[in-house]
Design a protein that fits this description.
alpha/beta; 7-stranded mixed sheet; 9 strands; about 25% strand; globular
Length: about 200
């Protein structure tokens, strides 16, 4: 059982129990990075960039046991519109799994296509408390977001990601070791509500 305690600033810290992983997935333009950036901004304390191990970089707040996996501005010189785990190596998964398995209790939060895979979820759930959050939005909202950010993700790529997410969702429904939820992510209030849930 994982217990929690509050530090002097009201932040929740993991006190004991297994490592906790929160992994946010969804098709392109469901707002995964937006959600994670809101999580970062709402967390009390000064975030710093850190290289956890080979190929694995992210953010941490000194003295706390909550970490973010992935590269985000302004801590990293990220080119283009995409941030997070999308900026990590395609080969990051085994390095991250090996690193996390050797860590003391803590909460690691990550989003993006790179680590939202069946193999990563399945392996991590063998020794960690895993929570998967699948974001969704209406098709017209997704189309508007693609147009607004002017990305060059083609229809074939977007469909492949949709198939991947659907397959993971179908698989995860039968997994007793993984907590999962589907969240509609359309408005700023949706963002705040989901972030609040991550912080619990």
């Amino acid at each position: 059982m994982t217990s929690k305690k509050q530090d002097g600033q009201g932040n929740t810290e993991m006190a004991e129990g297994p490592t906790q992983l929160t992994i946010i997935g969804g098709v392109p333009a469901t707002g995964k990075t937006t959600l994670l950036r809101q999580f970062i901004s709402q967390s009390a304390g000064v975030w710093r960039a850190i290289r956890f191990c080979k190929l694995v970089e992210g953010l941490y707040i000194p003295g706390q046991r909550t970490f973010v996996i992935g590269k985000y501005k302004p801590w990293y010189a990220v080119e283009g519109d995409f941030e997070g785990t999308d900026k990590l190596s395609m080969a990051v998964q085994p390095y991250l799994l090996a690193f996390l398995r050797g860590q003391p209790p803590g909460h690691f939060v990550m989003e993006g296509d790179r680590l939202f895979t069946r193999s990563f979820l399945e392996q991590a759930a063998q020794w960690a408390t895993v929570r998967a959050i699948i974001l969704c939005a209406a098709e017209e909202k997704l189309t508007a977001r693609h147009q607004l950010r002017g990305d060059n993700q083609g229809a074939q790529f977007i469909q492949s990601r949709a198939t991947k997410v659907a397959n993971i969702r179908q698989w995860i429904e039968g997994q007793e070791k993984i907590r999962w939820q589907v969240e509609n992510h359309v408005t700023p209030d949706d963002t705040k509500t989901i972030v609040k849930g991550i912080m619990k």
